[in-house]
Amino acid sequence: MAGMLYSLVALGFVLIFKASGVFNFAQGAMVLFAALAMARFSEWLSASGVGSAWMVNVIAFAMAAVVMFAVAWLIERLVLRQLVNQEGTTLLMATLGITYFLEGLGQSLFGSDIYKIDIGMPKEPVMAFESVFEGGILINQEDLIAALIAAVLVAALSLFFQKTGTGRALRAVADDHQAAQSIGIPLNRIWVIVWCVAGVVALVAGMIWGSKLGVQFSLATVALRALPVVILGGLTSVPGAIIGGLIIGVGEKLSEVFLGPYVGGGIEIWFAYVLALLFLLVRPQGLFGEKIIDRV
């Protein structure tokens, strides 16, 4: 479950970097803001007696998606449009500013309480493969559904980038902003699209995280936990975000169980960063990232 949650957050990093070359530090704040919006909308709709719990969740998700589209449009209009063709460091600092703004705005609009999102995912574990392994394997149904949701997102996004004209335009903008503009690709529209898609991905991540652990302001720090994932999987690879998340999620839990007793515990806190550091030394582009070749 931890690996899938890291993967969904890392997807937002990959999408925006792949399409705009911007490393978006605001992705964690977007997850928090989206989760807060859906939690409060669900709460308000339930109190007003709109209908069944399923209907409430659908309407709340749609309303939160509209909010994230509006956030994406405002980010492009007020921030990114003013910074076209600027240095990467300038854009990175702009996303840091967006992070703090979204955290403050979320607290002002939705409050600072801890909220729970109930989207109806089964939480009871089931036993599987009892005929294969002695005692079987205990599988959390909620974890399985989260994995399926992530797989569907990855498949859809991969098709979007590879098979659609907009997806190819996104990749062209990522390669060279000025060259893409020179052949008529509208940079502003492309950035709005990719931030909207990243907003929906953040909403899905926040929805699953809120269902599992509750919606609280510590969600904004999830971006820091997803950084080793994008380093491991590759900043330009959508499937790499999922594979990297699974490796990090499973690795940190196994290391805590099997190595923790020998070093006094706490491995889970730093395991992902050490693994990311090793990959930076050996394969800086990550498992599935595009290798950068400089010709002189």
Structural overview:
- With 296 residues, the chain is an all-alpha fold.
- It has one domain (2-126, 133-219).
- Helices cover 71% and strands 3% of the residues.
- The chain is built from 12 helices and 2 strands, in the order H-H-H-H-E-E-H-H-H-H-H-H-H-H.
- The protein has helices at residues 2-20, 27-47, 53-78, 88-110, 141-163, 165-175, 177-182, 187-213, 222-233, 238-258, 260-263, 267-282; strands spanning 125-128, 137-140.
- It has a two-stranded antiparallel sheet.
- Helix 1 packs across helix 6.
Instruction: Describe the strand arrangement of the main beta sheet, using strand numbers.
Output: 1-2
Query: Which regions have little confidence, pLDDT < 50, spanning 5+ residues?
Result: none
- Separation, N- and C-terminal Cα atoms: 45 Å
What's the helical proportion of residues? over 70%
Largest sheet: number of strands, sense, barrel closure: 2 strands, antiparallel
Topology, number of strands: 2
Q: How many structural domains are formed by the residues?
A: 1
Helix count equals 12
Q: Give me the strand/helix succession.
A: HHHHEEHHHHHHHH
Computed Rg: 20 Å
Which structural class fits the helix and strand makeup? mainly alpha
